[in-house]
Design brief:
2 domains, five-stranded mixed β-sheet, about 30% helix
């Protein structure tokens, strides 16, 4: 399933088989059977494939090697907005999804413009909390390029709220804002919806 299995093995085939068995056991516990519902016959394999993809961010081999470049400019804010993502809520293992804005105020180093999308992909492809995901991306950029400021704003719908419990649709916004970008003068440039 990407990365070492909990038993310490690093065999993706064994891990895939273990997930398939677990899904088959879950279906059985729910009173479902491929014998009476033939469309369930491939469900354990399909779910295992889905989780391998959805949790690919856990595999260190999938972490991007981000290109960095020297920077001699002054004060140019870099903003990448409208980045779509899908993740799975760590509490209920159901999707949350939306879009993100990643911004930084460079110091002596720039990062390639696709870095924001690559980091969002890595940190969303695991069992996740929206609040933690934004912090992880901000931390990664801080460590990598030591910017003067960084901001990660995430807006998402959570199916754990929409399809169970309160059953209400809403948008959750989280902000990880650090350094000079915490100054209110930058706020208009860090809006997810600048047109509003």
């Amino acid at each position: 399933m990407g990365g070492p299995a909990r038993d310490g093995s690093n065999d993706p085939v064994a891990s895939q088989a273990a997930v398939e068995r677990a899904v088959a056991d879950l279906l059985k516990a729910l009173g479902l059977s491929a014998a009476t519902e033939p469309e369930l016959a491939q469900t354990p394999a399909r779910v295992a494939d889905l989780y391998r993809e959805a949790f690919s961010g856990l595999d260190p081999a999938n972490h991007p090697d981000l290109a960095t470049f020297p920077h001699a400019g002054q004060g140019e804010l870099v903003v990448v907005r409208d980045l779509e993502f899908h993740s799975l809520c760590v509490h209920h293992m159901v999707p949350f999804f939306g879009r993100a804005l990643v911004a930084y105020l460079p110091g002596d180093t720039l990062v390639g413009i696709s870095a924001a999308a690559r980091l969002l992909e890595v940190y969303s492809r695991r069992p996740q909390l929206q609040e933690r995901m934004g912090q992880q991306i901000a931390d990664h950029l801080d460590r990598l390029i030591r910017p003067k400021g960084v901001a990660v704003i995430v807006e998402a719908r959570h199916l754990c709220m929409e399809m169970r419990g309160i059953r209400k649709r809403g948008l959750v916004e989280t902000r990880a804002v650090r350094g000079e970008l915490a100054d209110p003068r930058w706020a208009p440039l860090l809006a997810l919806h600048p047109e509003r």
